[in-house]
Amino acid sequence: MASNVSRSGKTLFTLVGAIVALTSMAILGTDVTGTLGQQSPDHKHEDKTRPGSIQTCPLDTLPRETSETAKDINAGGPYDFPGEDDSHFGNYEGVLPKQDSNYYREYTVETPGLNHRGERRIVTGGGTETDPEVWYYTDDHYESFCEIPDAEK
Question: Which of these is catalytic: 46, 68, 93, 141?
Fold first, then answer.
């Protein structure tokens, strides 16, 4: 009987130790899954945003719906989500280059199968509504961006 109690105590101690270790690693940001920095399989472009630089992503490397949204922007609408699209984008995350507060506008890139706006957006900057100076794409709701070099008319 004493052997079973001792074994139970060791098992409990080991379990508590493992929980403490995993919790500590989670708090400290240690990747225990081995997937840190890996992107989901539906990403067609890699390493979109590095500190201090923004990678490029030509339209033909992005989801098909991105081209449709770019055409709508170049035409001045209509947009799929009136009241949401062609609205101010504040760049509060600070991922895009710092500009005046009215510089950026955002537009929804539809995600097939969703019944809401999803995470995909085109953000434009400068120029006019139908001829922006810069075009950016995000598929993770503003956590990272790539610059679309060929979205102009």
Answer: 141
Is 68 labeled as catalytic in the residue annotation?
Answer: no
pLDDT tens for the chain, 153 residues long, are: 555 555 555 665 565 555 655 555 455 544 444 433 333 334 444 444 445 679 999 999 999 999 999 999 999 999 999 999 999 999 999 999 999 999 999 999 999 999 999 999 999 999 999 999 999 999 999 999 999 999 987
Given 106, 110, 133, 152, the catalytic residue: 106
Q: 24 with 76, same domain?
A: no
The C-alpha angle with vertex 130 and arms to 126 and 132, in degrees rounded to 5, equals 25
**Are 29 and 53 members of one domain?**
no
Question: Catalytic: 45?
Answer: no
Using only C-alpha atoms, the chain has a radius of gyration, in whole angstroms, of 23
CA angle 141, 93, 27 (to 5 degrees): 85
25 with 67, same domain: the answer is: no
Q: Are residues 53 and 90 in the same domain?
A: yes
